[in-house]
Every structure is written in structure tokens, then in C-alpha cells.
Amino acid sequence: MKKNRILSSKGKSGLKKKNEHTNELVTLAGRIHKEVMQNIDGKITQAMNDAVKTLDNVNEGNNTN
Question: What is the pLDDT of residues 22-50, one digit of tens each?
Fold first, then answer.
């Protein structure tokens, strides 16, 4: 019975607003996650490229065998 009173006192519009706000937060979190992962991926790729260039210099360009 308490749940019914709580839901009816807030009304459907209150629940709808909360649901929309939650959906916005989830969408924003997904966007932020994507950007962070792209940033990390870019840094890993750059680090691997730098490591290969360094090895290439150490091995006098013989890393392509």
C-alpha cells in the first residue's frame, strides 16, 4: 500500500521526468565513456608507434624482417 501512495502522490509526470533525466544521464555517460576509450586507444597507438621507431633506430632499420 505504501508504494501506491508514493507513486500516486508524485504522479506520472514526476516519474516521467525522473525517467527522462535518467535516460539523459545514461546517454551522457555513454558518450563520455566513448571519448575516454578513444583517447586511451590513441595514446596506446602513439606509444606503440614510438616504441617501433625507437627499436628501428636501435636496430638500424632492421625491424621489418
Answer: 999 999 999 999 999 999 999 999 999 99
User: 61 is written with which cell numbers?
Assistant: 632499420
Rounded to the nearest 10°, the torsion over CA 18, 20, 21, 22 is: 90
Say which DSSP state 1 is in: -
Q: What angle do CA 26, 32, 38 make, to 5 degrees?
A: 135
> Dihedral of CA 4/8/12/14: which sign?
negative
Report the alpha-carbon distance of residue 61 to residue 33 in Å, rounded. Answer: 38
> What nine digits make up the cell of 58?
636501435
Residue 62 one-letter amino acid: N
The beta strands (E) that lie in 1-65 are given as: none
pTM over 0.85: no
